[in-house]
Amino acid sequence: MPRLRISAFVVVSFFAGALALRGAAPVSLFDGRTLNGWEGDAKWWSVQDGAITGGSTTEKIPRNFFVATAKSFQNFDLRLKIKLTGVPNTGMINSGVQIRSLRVPADTEMSGYQVDAGDGWWGKLYDESRRNKVIGEPLDGAAVNAAVKKGDWNEYRIRAEGPRIRTWINGVPGLDYTETDPNVALDGKIAVQIHSGGIALVQAKDITIEELPPTPGAPTWDKVGHPKPRDPSAKKKKAAPAATPAVAPK
After folding, report:
1. Which of the 8 DSSP states describes residue 248?
2. Topology, domain 26-224
3. How many whole angstroms separate alpha carbon 188 and alpha carbon 218?
4. Residue range 109-131, pLDDT digits in tens
5. Beta bridge partners of 99
6. How far is 43 from 235, CA to CA, in rounded Å?
7. How far is CA 110 from CA 4, 30, 130, 188, 246, in A?
8. In what side-by-side order are the strands of the sheet with 38-39?
9. What SS3 state is found at 111?
C-alpha cells in the first residue's frame, strides 16, 4: 500500500508539472455582449452581432483606431476570428491584431507588434509606431493568400513565446519570427485595429487566450521605456503591392 500511494503521488506531480509547463487553460477575452475588459473610442468601437466591431459603413476612417485589452500579457497562444469588409476605391481597407503593445501618449496609435490583416498584408508582422516597417513575412505568401476568405471570417492563431512569434491563418502557417533586439518589450496589451483610409469595418469574435509561463528576464515595457509621443513626420502604411514581397512604409 505505501508503494501504491507513492506511485499515485508521483503520477499527480508529473501531470501537475506538465500542466504548469503548458500554461493556464484557455479563457475567453470577449463575452460576446459588452466591451468589458476592453477600452477604446466609443465612436469607432462597439459590439454588433456578437462581435467587437470597429470602423464605419458610411464614412472614411480618419485615423488608426484600436480597441485594447485592459490587461497585459507576455507569453500566450491567442485565437480569434476576424472579418474585414469595406467599400472598394474609398481608400485603404486594413486591420490587424496588436500584441505586446501599449498606447502612444496623446494619440490614437499603439506601439508594438501588429499581426496584419488585409489585401497584401495577411500573414505579415508590422512594427506599429516603433520601427514602422514590416519585420516578418509569411513563410509561404501564396498559401496564406489562398487560405484567406476575403470579406468573411478568418481564424487567426498567434503564439508568442519568448522572442518567437508564430501565426496561423485558418490553420495555414503564417509567419515565424524571432526578435533579436534586446530592447524590444515582450509584454503588453492585445488590441484590434481599424486602419485609416477607406470606408471599412472590422469585426472580431471567439477570442480566447492560453497564457504560457513567462520568460525569465525578458525585456518589458517597464524596463525598456514606455512609448513616447508620436513624431508627426513618422511614415505611414500604404497599400502593399500584391504582386511583389516589397512593402511600402507605414
Report:
1. -
2. Jelly Rolls (2.60.120)
3. 12
4. 999 999 999 999 999 999 999 99
5. 113
6. 26
7. 56, 20, 9, 10, 24
8. 38-39, 65-69, 189-194, 95-103, 110-117, 125-128, 134-136
9. strand
